[in-house]
Amino acid sequence: MPSTVPGQSVIYPHYCFQFSPTYNTWARLTSTIVHSLQARPGFEGQNTYFHHNHPLRWVRLVGVIVALDVYPNRVVMTLDDSSGLTIDIFCRKGTDNAPVTNTTVDSHGTIRSNRELKRSEDEHIYTTNEGYKVNLTDIDIGSVVKVKGGISEFRGEKQITLERISLVRTTNEEASAWAESATFCNDILSKPWIVSECNQQQARIEAEGVKREREVRRERKRRKKALEEKEERKARREQGRSRKEKNGRRDGEKNREMGEVKSTSRKQEIAKTAKLPRDTRGRQVVRPAVSGKFDALGL
Description:
By secondary structure, the chain is α+β, with helices and mostly antiparallel strands.
């Protein structure tokens, strides 16, 4: 449900942002306005900020680079757009270092390999959060640039996470960009954002349908995973049962072989004893030992 901030307009829920004129576009702002944007409860961690009740996450600024700090894995530029405050522009270092061969001649007439040129260019190539490559080779202190990016915070201060950057090469181009910013602020930001009841209901129904579809998809994945685990447990049980049966058969064959050996040895013993003489009663007669010539010696 929409919430109302005291002294301000209605803050609409996230599912209404599809009707916002500022949420899915590059908002033409100044650094002073960016620093004045507010975070609202319920939108934490979404990099979504508000100007009155207008939600914003992408901005476009025009100004002069007054500071440029290059670190091993990132670059931080400071932009001054003459609105009263400066703002930092942040971007991470790229990792695309594909090898290049052959040679070429640079602008000073020095023969250099393309590999060296590629390495020199890679030192100025950075990767945005959205995965785009930006080349800052021509960007230096004093450059007038047009910057596009997302809003973030570092140590409590707003900054721009770079997504696009281009040089402003003429005064007319700079004046046109400033005119666009003034028009955007006067025609859109200065007026409260109002969503009709019909659009709110439509967005809510769509959001509920998406939520139900997401829950159904999650439940389907859960059932599929449970079925796979059940089949895996069944396969393990069958494997253990077959291993036990195999071991049982092996033990049975071994016992049978041992029984046959014992039976054979027993039969041989019986056969030996059967050859001994017997008396009239069937008892075995043990013949007395015959004295020999060595009996006197105890041998």
